[in-house]
Design brief:
about 270 residues, mainly alpha, globular
Length: about 270
């Protein structure tokens, strides 16, 4: 839902970098809610701080690097590269966390990976020019998000989900100054209802999703959870069809078919 709706404030003139700032703020009420439900308990030792901030910084930092990659490079190449981060997560989860899956789930995972790439397809609107700094940035985001999911799963062995989300929220807030630096304040910005207020309601969906992911990785296998969550564009495409009468492209239709089969096979 977030993916289908987030373009509304952006098209109204509220830049995505300021949208990041709003998202970081919407993480706060979610963190307060779960900490309160947990009796305000959270881990405070050095390992908790290091793990929590690493998880938060790789996720939020990857988002800011993605903005820069999209500013300097073509979206139709950046998104497919970044979207395949579950490949790294799966490899590390098998090698480092010794996670295993049944034959049916492995088939589902195998279908999910090409589905993710197809769902991220966009027609070429520009050709890469100049230095390929965007390629390096996209690769860094790929690694950061792949590592984040593994670190999140690993931290669940010695941290509460509420504590992890607290540190993720803190890391997101720490990077707000970088988002502000990336913002071009010389351009007109929508400060009314269609700007930060609408963005806040939409980004709250993203924050709730991030919280749900923390719990999902605490109780589920990363090799299954991460590919399933990476198939979120299926919902985005369907909603875009309903809301904007925007027909999906042929590769995206194929991606939806593969994703549907993958979700069925991966579900335990």
């Amino acid at each position: 839902m977030w993916g289908a709706l987030i373009e509304l404030p952006e098209k109204a003139g509220f830049p995505p970098t300021l949208g990041y700032t709003v998202w970081a703020l919407t993480m706060v009420p979610c963190a307060i809610a779960v900490l309160r439900a947990n009796g305000w308990r959270r881990e405070r030792d050095g390992r908790a701080w290091a793990s929590g901030l690493f998880i938060g910084l790789t996720g939020a930092g990857g988002q800011l690097l993605l903005f820069e990659a999209l500013r300097t490079g073509p979206a139709y190449l950046v998104f497919p590269i970044v979207s395949l981060y579950p490949v790294l997560t799966i490899g590390l989860s098998v090698a480092w966390l010794a996670e295993r899956a049944g034959r049916r789930q492995w088939i589902g995972i195998g279908l999910a990976l090409p589905a993710i790439a197809l769902l991220s397809y966009a027609p070429p609107t520009e050709s890469p020019t100049g230095a390929a700094s965007w390629l390096l940035l996209a690769a860094v985001v790929f690694v950061a998000w792949g590592l984040q999911a593994v670190a999140l799963k690993r931290a669940g062995a010695y941290m509460s989900a509420e504590g992890i989300f607290f540190y993720m929220s803190l890391a997101g807030l720490l990077l707000v100054p970088l988002a502000l630096v990336q913002t071009d304040f010389a351009r007109p910005i929508e400060w009314g209802w269609r700007g930060p207020w609408l963005a806040g309601l939409i980004h709250l969906l993203n924050s709730i999703g991030a919280l749900a992911l923390v719990y999902a990785l605490r109780y589920g296998k990363a090799i299954v959870v991460v590919p399933m969550t990476a198939l979120a564009p299926v919902v985005t495409i369907v909603l875009s069809l309903a809301l904007y009468q925007r027909m999906p492209l042929l590769p995206q239709v194929l991606g939806i078919v593969l994703a549907t089969a993958a979700l069925y096979l991966m579900a335990e």
